[in-house]
Amino acid sequence: MEMTLLLLALGVAMDATAVSGGMAIRGARPPDIFKLALTFGVFQFGMSLGGALGGKAILTHFAAIDHWIAFGLLALVGGHMIWEAFSHDEEERASAPVGIKLSMLLTLGVATSIDALAVGVTLPALELGIFYSTGLIGVLTFVLSILGAWAGKRLGERFGTSIEILGGLVLIGIGTKTLVEHLSA
């Protein structure tokens, strides 16, 4: 049962990890990366807790549009990353690190945690304790987001703008995958 929980936690943390890497590639500073990782951890915890406590009642209200919300938000952020890659040169990017505004934190928090709501519905069946399970999801998301940012920064230093474009495409791909999976189900 605990291995199942670990795999669920890893699965829902991947979007947040990818976004953190993308933001680090764009030049986000360590304090902003910390805020981003904390936001992701809190949103993953809160959404999975909401799913576990509210279960099917919550999902019923959002099931028709959750995939569209995730797709729209991730496509918007990914598209913005690609646009930024083409609109600024390397020297300009290095001299002006990216700051992360509250509105972006909240948008990314929602976009990356919608799946956690659905995962939360399954948590009571694991019989491991709702707060233990949701806490693990939140903490693991936080840690993996920090690691994703570290890896993104290294890749950004090595590959420059092309890795930022790839990061934007990955976010759009995650959103598209979410949309296609829900539409084909």
Automatic annotation (TrEMBL):
Compartments, as annotated in UniProt: Cell inner membrane
GO annotations of cellular component type: plasma membrane
A molecular function GO annotation: manganese ion transmembrane transporter activity
Membrane topology classification: Multi-pass membrane protein
Record key words, sorted: Cell inner membrane, Cell membrane, Ion transport, Manganese, Membrane, Transmembrane, Transmembrane helix, Transport
InterPro entries noted in UniProt: Mntp/YtaF, Put_MntP
TM region positions: 34-53, 65-83, 103-123, 130-151
Family: Belongs to the MntP (TC 9.B.29) family.
Role: Probably functions as a manganese efflux pump.
Protein name (Swiss-Prot/TrEMBL): Putative manganese efflux pump MntP
Organism: Myxococcus stipitatus (strain DSM 14675 / JCM 12634 / Mx s8)
